[in-house]
Amino acid sequence: MKRLDGRAALVTGGTTGIGLATAKRFLQEGAKVAITGTNPDTLAAAQKELGAGALVLRSDAASGADRAALAKTISEKFGKLDILFANAGVGTFGPLEGFAEAEFDRQFAINVKGPLFLVQALLPHFSASASVVLNASVVAHVGMGGTAVYTATKGAVLAMARALSAELVQRGIRVNTISPGPIATPIYGKLGMPADQVAQMGEGIRASVPMKRFGEAREIADAAVYLASQESSYTTGAEIVVDGGLIAS
Fold it and tell me: Is the pTM of this model over 0.85?
């Protein structure tokens, strides 16, 4: 028997990187899977990679109307939802003196407001033993220059998960977080920096990790499978850090 047999899962931001790797693992473990994204090209590519059995939906994590429509679609297609991996997120980095307030609003709208109100929209549709997994980040524990806004959003996610775990436990809903360290995903190509600066930054990050490498998206997906499955049935309000030893150092 597979670990997620008969369970229905939603992965937001599921078209690339950690989200796509997690959707693949959920499918491998027997779950019915829906993913979301906003880019038509990556949505189409993800559908091809995951196969016809996956439900691929366009949905903007920052849009209240999209969240309501997504909850309705999940209810119609799956009935009850057993697993939510709230992975959709953005990060733009740079020194404080040049940071725009509009970008602050965008990151909080997607990284914090998005998962909170998606959970709210899905409340009527969660099963009695549902697992909610929020994707945070190791930066909430490690101060890094140029990441103040992104770090603030991920610290908010951690605090929000603890509060939600206390509030929703009586409904049978478990809420936990995963905090990835440096992971080799497409986000590094979306920083708006020249390629040589991205490469230099990557080498600096790699050198700071005790394991001397970037993590792989599948390593986060494995942690998500554990939290989504009944193997973690006595775990709520917890954080799993997958960072190659970065915090420990």
Answer: yes
